[in-house]
Amino acid sequence: xxxxxxxxxxxxxxxxxxxxxxxxxxxxxxxxxxxxxxxxxxxxxxxxxxxxxxxxxxxxxxxxxxxxxxxxxxxxxxxxxxxxxxxxxxxxxxxxxxxxxxxxxxxxxxxxxxxxxxxxxxxxxxxxxxxxxxxxxxxxxxxxxxxxxxxxxxxxxxxxxxxxxxxxxxxxxxxxxxxxxxxxxxxxxxxxxxxxxxxxxxxxxxxxxxxxxxxxxxxxxxxxxxxxxxxxxxxxxxxx
Length: 240
Description:
Elements lengths: L2 H21 L66 E6 L4 E8 L18 E4 L9 E6 L23 E6 L3 E14 L5 H5 L5 E12 L4 E17 L2
Parallel strand pairs: 2-3, 4-7
Antiparallel strand pairs: 1-2, 1-5, 3-4, 5-6, 6-8, 7-8
């Protein structure tokens, strides 16, 4: 399948996902359980930019034929490191800067049209919204994780608000490809005014959104915000 066809399909999938979210009335995602208040409490803020590390680019094979076919046939040139990948279900998410290394499970929609959320038990995996593109495809893949747990104030994405632009997110897929994304920005939105279109809108390149809750209110024991990390694909390599 050509890259243009893959790109078009990815954009259609992303658009359809956004349309379904809007049709389902999703304006925010509940990923904060009724637990004891976090200590320290994650703050609602937009993370300032940090120096961007050099992206990891896969080196070419050590042994190559004496005559490189790509030198005479441009169609045989290797794909750039940030080229869109074919569909493959994500199975693991790693965010080294905040110590996240966890499995992922597919999530659908609840009867009321809202996105399902992962289990809130300690050590539970995060979730990939299966009506969004798979990470690495063109479009916006949606990854969800709880900010706390049923018996703890520390959940999978408890430190998500600490992520800064330039840091890496690696998502391992079922096809044994590790897709590496570089963070562009981190935004915090009030759930009451959650910008659904901005968060879920169609992307013309492979992107990922990591989403959790924030803004804990001790009076109601509820989270009033959603933290959203935006990142784009910068490389891919065989998973170890």
